[in-house]
Amino acid sequence: MPHDGPVQAGVSERRVSGYGAARTRYPSLLPEAAASERALTFAGTALAAVYTAGPTDTELRLVETTGRATAAYPPPDRLPLSGGSAVAHAIRTGRPLWLDAPGLAGYPEGRPVPPDTPASLGALPLRAEGGRRGCLVVVGPSASGFDPEQRGFLGRYADAVADVLRAGDGGATPTSPLTTALRGMHVGSFTLVPDTGLIEADETLLDLVGITPDEFDGKADTLLAHAVPEDMHALMSVVEPTTQAVERRELEFRVRCPTGGMRWLSLGCRVLAGADGRPERVQGIVTATSELRRSADDVSRIQWLTAALDDATTVRDVGRVVVSALREPLGADRVALAELQGDRLVVTVLDPPQTTYWPERWRAEWRTEWPEAPIGVLPTLKTALRDGRMDLWPAGTEFEPGLLGVGDGGLAVLPLPAKGRAVGVCLIGWDRPHEFVPDERALLTATAALVGDALKRAQAHDAEQELATMLQRSLLPRRLPDLPGGIAVARYVPARQGLQVGGDWYDVIALSEDRVALVIGDVQGHSAGAATIMGQMRTAVRAYAVEGHPPDVVISHANRLLVGMETDLFATCCYAELDMEEDNILFVRAGHLSPLMRHPDGRTEEVLVEGGPPLGILADAEFPMTAVPIVPGAVLALVTDGLVEAADLPLDEGMRRMCASLTVADPADPGRVADALLGDFGPREDDVALLLLRYDGMLTRPVKAGWAVWRLPDAVMHARRFTARTLRRWHAQEVADAVLLVVSELVTNALVHTQGPVRIDLTLRGDRVRVCVSDSSPRAPAKPVIVDWESTGGRGLMLVEAMSDAFGTVPVAGGKQVWSEIVVPRRDTASAHPGTRTEPRDLS
């Protein structure tokens, strides 16, 4: 069979000079000298030289050179140890010196490279124990320097040369330390012609594979016959390379030794293309894996992955661990982790996260924050999940549109098994051609099993936490109301232990346009039971508050309710009713922490509030009220003990720190103030609730007037006169007719249909007049369903609703309040609205 021209010529010349005519019957067996030169050439070395010096020598002496470019890079015979050459510098520092073309220009003395010639140089000191010392010098034709893999190989080569020189201490120096060292490294080399399947190999390669020179016929199939069948797929990608595979590749494979054992070998090769772009030759080296510097310790990697997955609690945590364990160590360009939910794959982690790196079909199917795609559009993944077997697809594989671009250079599809079924899939893709070596396959298989179990645990954890989160969100307010005189913000952080749901709660209850209740509480414990009690208490406090009860009555009712539940849990609570018209707060504290107030000048203090016992202990407990003034610009903070108390933080110290943090905070943004008070969101022993109010004061204070209606035959007339006088004083005569009609109807209904006192309150707020009529009946007024011409009543409420811009009824303590709002037309003069003056409540 015809051989490749350059290969055949090189073999013939070397064969005759190296081995003699006796070996001419093996035309594909490479002589030792040629094999050594080829191995060094594959390592990016055009010249290798070794210098030595004795203990008392002042110069380095050239011992041997080898390489195909000895004439192009002539090394000097001697170099002074004290000189400025790169070799002398490396020996003095004791560290390898790697120089690219610009770096080499800085060492003009004694360099073997002519000026302005693009080349690289490496100077590797040789270890000396018996007094001998030296340096291995390598020159490469690339101006960019040696790559990490080449440096690693040459570093091991320098160690082997040093071992050869030490072996000659006390005797004659070996005549060829470079060749002897390379032979001792057991590095075999080869040149393969893909079109013919013929291969030139050296004796070292045959020895590694387990073939004697007499058995070798120059065919690649003869070498492949000794490989383990499971690794044949990877080796065939070397024997039959694709047109895209024109770069260096690394892979590992196993061979059966003549004794029956198995040996791991590592193969590195480079595919050289011809003029037509097709693969023309494959050059490479083969080394026993025990002689190689492994890119990663697989055992250590599995140990790290196991420990990292133990700490991964959520599905996203598992995804981040998978990316850290696979993408960079394997040199992958893409990693995707997807959960299997029914017939859909829900992608939880994409790296890189940008959608432009992933198939167009995926982006078309993504409908939620985390993308998802039906398995039906991805047959490759469907088959892998069905069979539960890892699939490794080499470069050039044609995929369905749903996987185009994920791994053009190679794609690994890893089903993630757990308890006998697949719970997800991991995709690992490479852009450049990638070879799947056997150790890598074993690593991916072990990784898939570990990740599958971790993903199953994380799914159960996420489901539990989702349930807890839904429970907590359903028990806490979704949003806080907008307040006319301030801004309220709240934060809740669950405990990082257990179910992450607890008994802390907060609430902001708008009682009227100028009154608001701020509530914070804490039910004992942080469990589902505590959360349930918390939800009941929050609902009860809100119900009692909107009925119009004063703060002490609200808390007393809540206390009796909790006592009647016959639960072993108790609760603490701090209730604050803010009157934004009067700039005053009424506090009631039931076993809870004192509130904090930051004054406009920055001074922060605990508010002295009288306290009662926790809720749920004594049914007849008393809860006194404490009135505290507040000025615009102040910040009120209500906290639970989880924020200021811990095993290593006494309560007094925690409150002191909280005051200090509130003092230095900028109240311009209450949200940032709340975040600053929470501090680090690290693990907490207890859940935390925080409620802040920045009080700005009322921009427009309402004008009010009130009248206690007498139960007399002419009571409606007196109520109309009171209303008319008030509207004239407020310069709101434009709406007098409508307001008087509303007052007449509401007062008449209250006197006719209820017993007890009746009261009318008028309020002018901005451009609205509000009429409120209160009585002692809890029943809301009902409009008639049918009103005909013969009906003697029922039209009053219909008239009120027609004349009002807004109309309604609210329960109050001991009865109800029916109200109506009527808009006052705007006037051009500023005197139309005495908005800065507060009228007395009771005018007669």
UniProtKB/TrEMBL annotation:
InterPro entries registered for this protein in UniProt: Bact_Sigma-Reg (IPR052016), GAF (IPR003018), GAF-like_dom_sf (IPR029016), HATPase_C_sf (IPR036890), HATPase_dom (IPR003594), PAS (IPR000014), PAS-like_dom_sf (IPR035965), PAS_fold_3 (IPR013655)
Alphabetized Pfam families for the sequence: GAF_2 (PF13185), HATPase_c_2 (PF13581), PAS_3 (PF08447), SpoIIE (PF07228)
Domain PAS: 174-249
Highest taxon of source: Bacteria
Coiled-coil residue windows: none
Gene3D superfamilies, alphabetized: 3.30.450.40, Histidine kinase-like ATPase, C-terminal domain, PAS domain, PPM-type phosphatase domain
UniProt KW keywords: Hydrolase
SMART domains: PAS, PP2C_SIG
UniProt-listed PROSITE patterns: PAS
Name of protein: SpoIIE family protein phosphatase
